[in-house]
Amino acid sequence: MADGTPGNLAGRVVVVTGGTRGIGRATSDLLAQAGAVVVVTGRDEVRVKTVAAELSEANGVPVTGVAFDVADFDAVGAAFKAIAAQHGRIDGLVANAGILDDALIGMIRPGLVERLLATNVAGTIATVQAAARVMMRKGSGSIVVLASIVGENGGVGQTAYAASKAAVATVARSAAKELGPRGIRVNAVAPGLIDTEMIAHLPKTLVEERITDTALRRLGDPADVARVIRFLISDEARFVTGQVLGVDGGLVL
Ligand code: NDP
Asked: Ligand 1 atom closest to Cα of 192?
């Protein structure tokens, strides 16, 4: 990046996990608009390649796609090695891939907690590790992980998901301490309710209640979160690390 502004990430190689939909796709789009060399990931090979081609076409910069499951530790390591070999560096990671599976405490099925933790927590740690290994070679980098307002305040039916997102916030704080001396910043964003496929199953009445509880009186748009992530990835945030930044329109849970 020549001048450190969010609008200029020219040449920066940034990996966005879960970049095929929602917040990840909006982030990939904004980063590509700013000139970054974006690598979009997800589990579905066809979707990953399609989205990468669409973002390349729309922004006139090369966007590539790599398919792997963030819950598969070995696959994450292999994918980041291949990305580093192809691009020679990794400057940014947006560890965005995540899943939601709501259940009241009495209804939590066997395996639900493990599944949420495997993707949201172990998957985040695996990608942070894999990216940090590459970033350490150059002694610089910026990582953003996706926490949630629910991880801070809890939510009905969200005991397991909230626990996973609270853990993600602590990943940012710990990794920031450990990687700061190596020139790598690590921050989290904690979105409120954002209008993506992830929340499509929520009853309309609950969504309306949440909008009433939000100071800005609307749902978040994926781009609302993407803009903050772009800032944190950029040198504009060069003295910001270990933070969990709410992007929730003033939602009080
Ligand atoms: P979406 O469900 O719209 O998109 C999730 C993305 O993650 C998809 O690209 C999906 O691709 C990918 N993904 C899911 N599981 C895996 C996996 N195991 N390995 C690799 N990729 C995976 O989610 P959102 O955009 O809404 O959410 C993005 C992040 O923001 C998540 O971490 C979420 O918890 C967090 N968040 C969202 C909020 C909201 O209100 N929407 C609020 C607070 C936090 P594929 O399925 O093809 O693998």
From this structure: 42
Please answer whether residues 39 and 16 qualify as being in contact, where contact means their C-beta atoms are separated by less than 8 angstroms.
yes
Ligand 1 mean position, distance from CA 2 (Å): 31
What distance in Å separates the CA atoms of residue 201 and residue 199, rounded to the nearest whole number?
5
Q: Which residues line ligand 1 (CB under 6 A)?
A: 17-18, 20-24, 42-44, 47, 69-71, 96-100, 119, 123, 146, 148, 191, 193-194, 196-199
Q: Tell me the pLDDT of the chain (253 aa) as tens digits.
A: 344 455 689 999 999 999 999 999 999 999 999 999 999 999 999 999 999 999 999 999 999 999 999 999 999 999 999 999 999 999 999 999 999 999 999 999 999 999 999 999 999 999 999 999 999 999 999 999 999 999 999 999 999 999 999 999 999 999 999 999 999 999 999 999 999 999 999 999 999 999 999 999 999 999 999 999 999 999 999 999 999 999 999 999 8
Q: 15 catalytic, yes or no?
A: no
- Quote the ligand 1 centre to 100 CA distance (angstroms): 8
Domain ranges of the chain: 13-189+222-246
- Contacts for 136 with CB less than 8 Å, ≥ 6 apart: 179, 182, 184
| Catalytic pick among 143, 161, 186, 191 | 161
CATH superfamily, domain 13-189+222-246, is NAD(P)-binding Rossmann-like Domain (3.40.50.720)
| E strand map for 70-208 | 92-95, 141-146, 184-191
